[in-house]
Prior knowledge:
Pfam families: Tannase (PF07519). This protein is an alpha/beta fold.
Amino acid sequence: MRFTARLSTxxxxxxxxxxxATEETQFEQRCSDLTDSFNAVDTxxxxxxxxxxxxxxxxxxxxxxxxxxxxxxxxxxxxxxxNVTTSSTSxxxxxxxxxxxxESKGERFLMTxxxxxxxxxxxxxxxxxxxxxxxxxxxxxxxxxxTGLPFFNRPEVVKxxxxxxxxxxxxxxxxxxxxxxxxxxxxxxxxxxxSGGRQGLKAAQEFxxxxxxxxxxxxxxxxxxxxxxxxxxxxxxxxxxxxTHLNRDQWIAVHQMVVGQCDGIDGVLDNVIEDPMxxxxxxxxxxxxxxxxxTSHQCLTAAQVLTVRKIYSPxxxxxxxxxxxxxxxxxxxxxxxxxxxxxxxxxIGDEWYKYALYNDPTWSIQxxxxxxxxxxxxxxxxxxxGTEKTDxxxxxxNNTRILMYHGLADCMIxxxxxxxxxxxxxxxxxxxxxxxxxxxxxxxxxxxDHCTSxxxxxxxxxxxQYTTAGALNIDPADSVLMTMVKWVEQGIAPDTLTGRxxxxxxxxxxxxxxxxxxxxxxxxxxxxNLASSWECRTA
Length: 539
Ligand SMILES: *[C@@H]1O[C@H](CO)[C@@H](O)[C@H](O)[C@H]1NC(C)=O
Ligand SMILES: *[C@@H]1O[C@H](CO)[C@@H](O)[C@H](O)[C@H]1NC(C)=O
Ligand SMILES: *[C@@H]1O[C@H](CO)[C@@H](O)[C@H](O)[C@H]1NC(C)=O
Ligand SMILES: *[C@@H]1O[C@H](CO)[C@@H](O)[C@H](O)[C@H]1NC(C)=O
């Protein structure tokens, strides 16, 4: 087969020099040849094949593992799938998508991140990157599936999750791309959300010369605090049926109560709170009077009101030690109910403590979670997974640009966590925002849930957002990724981040989200769905 293809390539070259058909054949040939031509230590090539635009790519990852099962290719590209050994007991699967138009699109490299407990390759972020001509790498973070089970008694797998898979996949991915195109990579970028946001900041902290631009969204930075705050939710709510628990309908009522109390603060009634810091919900509004019940009056008991108050309060551990800021006060109750306050312990905390921290399958949030567990987790900080370092001097000196954004309606990782990290960097480096702006900018995005969707102008062209209907019809020029490219390659730093309200595949509004510490402020007149009706003001 290969021999025939080579002969026909030669034939075509002789007949018509540099016809596009020839280039295509050569590209396909060079791609399948990677099996022989690309050699790297500790690396097995699992697949090297040409994939045409529009192909439904399916993945060999095991089924019940919380990962996507397919993605549609958005470019003609070469797909390389590698298995890289990281220790005698661990390995990482690396995918490299290399589009045909890479040379004419700026010779850019893009690394994508993961989510949750790790092991899902973000294929939609990868295909999106190839549609813009990037060579894109994704990896499984050292284990298959968004599950903590593979951590059980395998510390090397935890190490991959904390940082090594990212570092390894970046190195091997870059060498594969340079080899395939016989060319040096011009600029390197990173994009990821949630755990992927944490990985982006990990790169900024520990591998500051590997990326020119890092886009970190809703980062699970300060990992131990994020896991603790999520796990503590179950302690607050108790299981369904307990006196402290609220059912789904009751949380919908709470959501409407918060909207009623806080939506107007920013001058626009649109289910979006522009600055949640100004919203202090008062759940006592829903308290039942004597003889009243949920059934008769849609009101809450005192115990339930206290639950709501606790959920919207900061979290303190042993000896009153501050652990985490409060949950955002306006969130999509559906996702929040599913993952945070529905009375079922979240799998992330449960599996992290069980399999990574204690190596004890009998451990459970229900029976064993307390503040000593949290202290132990912070103190162990397995392989630096906490990602708490606030000194980004090396990143600054390497000219690495960092763009962080966080949805202000995020119900999984509170956006206050990102403010805290940003202000920590400011203090640690002794740089006011005007100077952090040179290399590190933070954009709070009102009306964005966790990574994707929301009631506001949430679509910024970011990680996890390209699964949404209509997303691909939006001009990518002011997407967060191309905004970063402009910053890195043309020195045009973004003052605002363009967000669009995307409903049922249709854009119904637009907003230019201001960078912290400026506040996106309604001018008081004009259609609030127009970006021009808002401006950036000092608080
Ligand atoms: C892609 O293939 C998978 C697996 O065969 C299938 O479930 C999915 O519906 C396909 N997607 C499209 C858009 O054709
Ligand atoms: C990857 O390599 C490791 C050995 O390092 C092996 O245990 C594992 O089964 C391989 N995975 C795949 C998908 O080939
Ligand atoms: C590499 O990037 C620079 C901008 O940083 C650009 O001027 C140049 O054209 C790019 N080179 C290639 C080969 O695309
Ligand atoms: C760039 O980062 C590396 C670490 O990856 C560090 O050793 C080096 O000092 C940094 N460069 C500068 C100019 O600070």
